[in-house]
Specification:
By secondary structure, the protein is an alpha/beta fold. It contains 3 helices and 9 strands; from the N terminus they run H-E-E-H-E-E-E-E-H-E-E-E. The longest helix is centred in the first third of the chain and has 14 residues, at 3-16. The protein is globular and about 65 Å long.
Length: 199
């Protein structure tokens, strides 16, 4: 662990103690896992505490953990992952929070803390169906207004539910059932190092 990463880890341990569910170090980065109940408070502290001072939200995205690494996942299905940057201390941290309800995934909005969260949270809502409580304008941002479903969920069909096209006779865009024939993809096969006798 580098001295900078060690200093960050110590500052996090001092400030949060057992509040953090987990702290993982991988590839020279720290990932904090927090509960949905503590998410807003932890994020505010990460921004405001002088020993941490994460002034910038760099990125935020949703994750669907069902069938994670092609295996069944035990635990909550949906997570939000935020990446923060401290310009003052020149360090970064990743924060992960799992939505407690798979049927209606919801976590607190970060828009009161970082204005940059606005479009990121709208995207996660649109593509994964994660609700950000306290977001003042939570609506779709990438899909059409009449779109049904959330296309980055792993149970969403690859072909979608409907397709749209311009109809020259009615001179408007129309929706119709998908006309693409469903096909079965070949599953990924992992072979041994010496498959086929080659050495």
């Amino acid at each position: 662990m580098t001295q900078k990463l060690n200093s960050l880890r110590q500052a996090l341990d001092t400030r949060f103690g057992a509040t953090l569910l987990n702290v993982q170090q991988n590839l020279g980065e720290l990932t904090l896992v927090v509960s949905a109940q503590e998410y807003a408070a932890v994020m505010a502290t990460l921004r405001d505490d002088p020993s941490l001072k994460f002034e910038q939200l760099i990125d935020l995205c949703g994750v669907d953990y069902s069938q994670y690494k092609n295996r069944p996942w035990e635990g909550q299905r949906f997570a939000v992952v935020a990446h923060l940057l401290s310009v003052t201390h020149n360090w970064r941290v990743r924060v992960k929070v799992f939505a407690p309800d798979d049927d209606l995934p919801a976590v607190a909005s970060l828009t009161p803390l970082w204005a940059a969260a606005n479009w990121y949270e709208r995207e996660a809502f649109d593509l994964f169906g994660i609700v950000f409580e306290g977001h003042e304008d939570l609506r779709r941002i990438l899909t059409d207004y009449g779109f049904i479903g959330h296309p980055l969920r792993k149970d969403f069909p690859v072909t979608g539910h409907v397709e749209m096209r311009y109809d020259p006779q009615t001179q408007r865009v129309i929706y119709q059932p998908v006309t693409i024939e469903a096909r079965e993809n070949t599953p990924r096969v992992v072979r041994e190092d010496h498959y086929g006798g080659a050495h």
